[in-house]
Amino acid sequence: MRRRFPLRASAAALGALLILSACGANAGGGSGDSDDSASGAEGGDGELGTVGVILPETASSARWEGFDKPMLEEALRAEGFEPDVQNAQGDVQKFSTLADGMIAQGVSVLVIASINSEVGGAVASKAQAAGIPTIDYDRLNLGGSSEYYVSFDNVRVGELQGEGMAQALEDEPGAQVIEIEGAPTDNNATLFHEGQRNVLQPLYDSGDLELVQSQPIDDWNNQEGGQVFEQILTSNGGEVDGVVAANDGLALAVITVLRKYGLNGTVPVTGQDATAEGLRAILRGDQYMTVFKPVKEEAEATAKLAAALAEGDTAAADEIAGDVSEDPEGDREVASVLLEPYLITKDSVKRVVDEGYVSAEDVCIKDVADVCSELGIG
Ligand code: GAL
């Protein structure tokens, strides 16, 4: 049975906060106050107040500044909030300091994509103590206290990576696989790996594939991912038939090493995030697949959930977050929005361009321009 955050109690606190802030500033009402003039609500942007968003880093993936930031800003404005989207640049102290500032500012809702569960959980507790509801965005804080989580079905993300690898190696019985995984401090990385193994473990067990080594990479550090991969490759006599890389950043680091040994384009590599660089690598034949996660949907679901929380509308919040995620560390279930991810190979790169996540100008550069023409991209 899911534990329920006493949203009604916090709604009262939140309502009081909104009325106070409305009296003192431009922040809007949204406190459920019947008379808008009393809450100081003015039309247009920000009538529901400000939503603080803290993103984890930029080094691990181009998605955070390229997709999440602009799409969250647009979705939050569409719901009547003023967005304040910041990036902690991989620094836990900065993450905490940004949160302190947003809490002091009296944001209506705090949205956090944490560097790790420890800092995320601490920030969520502090915000809730100030009467500010929090949403875990993209990454669940294990042992945390946010009552809502918005992400993708991350086990499914891993299954798509596993299916891509199995597909690429289906005619190579006994093929040797190296796994370069995400940060052990990121619950998503654990879920991605779980999904990959749902597909690959039976193939390892049957001998259809052979696992050389599986290695998590701290902080998703792309450079370290490349160095570790090269060490494993060297220790395996320079032999590898396929590489499971947990996102495009790691995939590109692996491909750089493969190119050094003349293996790029013959050794399939998986990825995730459908970044411009990852899509270019797929068009070149260096990367086999990526996973497209329509971040616009993630941003819009977060904004709608934030609006329900800012208005203390528990029923609406629970209606939006109809899925459930397990938090084994906190021994609890968390109301969630878990969106569908999509496998992207060479033939479906066009979809990511057509949906406006990347531009043909960004993807179809120089050596892949002809391939783009053949595939009708741009
Ligand atoms: C994960 C995120 C992925 C991946 C990674 C690197 O938590 O869900 O999209 O890019 O972080 O930042």
Question: Explain this structure to me?
Answer:
- Residues 29-48 are annotated as: Disordered.
- There is one protein chain.
- This protein has helices at 7-24, 36-39, 63-78, 92-105, 117-129, 154-168, 187-206, 222-235, 248-260, 276-284, 295-310, 314-320, 349-354, 360-363, 369-375; strands at 50-55, 82-87, 109-112, 134-137, 148-152, 175-181, 209-216, 242-245, 290-292, 323-327, 332-339, 342-344.
- It is of the alpha/beta class.
- Strands 2-1-3-4-5-11-10 form a 7-stranded mixed sheet, sandwiched between helices. The chain has a 3-stranded parallel sheet with strand order 7-6-8, with helices on both faces. A two-stranded antiparallel sheet has the order 9-12.
- It is globular and about 55 Å long.
- Bound molecules: beta-D-galactopyranose (GAL).
- Beta-D-galactopyranose (GAL) is lined by residues 60-61, 63, 138-139, 182, 186, 188, 220, 247, 272-273.
What's this model, at a glance?
The protein has 378 residues and is α/β, with parallel strands linked by helices.
Indicate the topology.
Blueprint: H1 7-24, H2 36-39, E1 50-55, H3 63-78, E2 82-87, H4 92-105, E3 109-112, H5 117-129, E4 134-137, E5 148-152, H6 154-168, E6 175-181, H7 187-206, E7 209-216, H8 222-235, E8 242-245, H9 248-260, H10 276-284, E9 290-292, H11 295-310, H12 314-320, E10 323-327, E11 332-339, E12 342-344, H13 349-354, H14 360-363, H15 369-375
Parallel strand pairs: 1-2, 1-3, 3-4, 4-5, 5-11, 6-7, 6-8
Antiparallel strand pairs: 9-12, 10-11
Helix pairs in contact: 3-11, 4-5, 6-7, 8-9, 11-12
The structure holds beta-D-galactopyranose.
Residues 60-61, 63, 138-139, 182, 186, 188, 220, 247, 272-273 line the site of beta-D-galactopyranose.
